[in-house]
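Hypothesis: this fold can be encoded by more than one sequence.
Test: take the structure tokens below, design a sequence, compare later.
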């Protein structure tokens, strides 16, 4: 049995006293502006990346579809991650840029005014964007790798501001 959440040294807030799953009660928390930024990378064969850039993939404009998929995914997060709270998301932005000729960097920023953070929504957005790129390009490239899905920054709430330290951004890590 897992330790009760209130006595847990590691803060297992999603477990009740009997070790069962529970959604954390946020009723007493104040509503504040919450914001999170996450990123992911998709490593592709250079020819596949070139085909994406030229918008010549048979299934359509890969980045446009991935952007819409990411926005939709952020809004659907509580249906995908069982203990996430449904949140009144006020903004989802998704951006892409190329790192060299074969790595697509995806970044999502999500915000809301609520009682809990939007880290999971930002992470879900970049994960689904990366999966969409994979799905749209798998017939061209079986070597696609999705990597480094991570929270970059968050703000708002009791835990305050988090910014991934720059030494964690080392591309050779």
């Amino acid at each position: 049995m897992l330790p009760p959440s209130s006595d847990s040294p590691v803060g297992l807030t999603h477990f009740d006293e009997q070790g069962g799953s529970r959604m954390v009660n946020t009723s007493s928390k104040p509503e504040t502006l919450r914001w999170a930024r996450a990123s992911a990378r998709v490593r592709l064969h250079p020819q596949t990346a070139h085909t994406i850039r030229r918008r010549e993939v048979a299934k359509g404009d890969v980045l446009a579809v991935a952007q819409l998929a990411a926005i939709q995914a952020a809004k659907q997060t509580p249906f995908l991650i069982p203990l996430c709270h449904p949140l009144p998301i006020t903004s989802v932005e998704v951006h892409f840029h190329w790192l060299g000729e074969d790595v697509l960097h995806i970044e999502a920023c999500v915000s809301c005014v609520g009682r809990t953070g939007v880290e999971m929504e930002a992470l879900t957005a970049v994960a689904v964007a990366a999966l969409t790129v994979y799905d749209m390009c798998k017939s061209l490239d079986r070597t696609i790798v999705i990597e480094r899905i991570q929270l970059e920054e968050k703000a708002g709430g009791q835990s305050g501001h988090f910014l991934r330290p720059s030494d964690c951004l080392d591309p050779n890590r």
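Residues 1-9 have pLDDT under 50 and may be disordered. The domain at 30-156 is CATH 3.30.70.640 (Alpha-Beta Plaits).
Hypothesis status: open.
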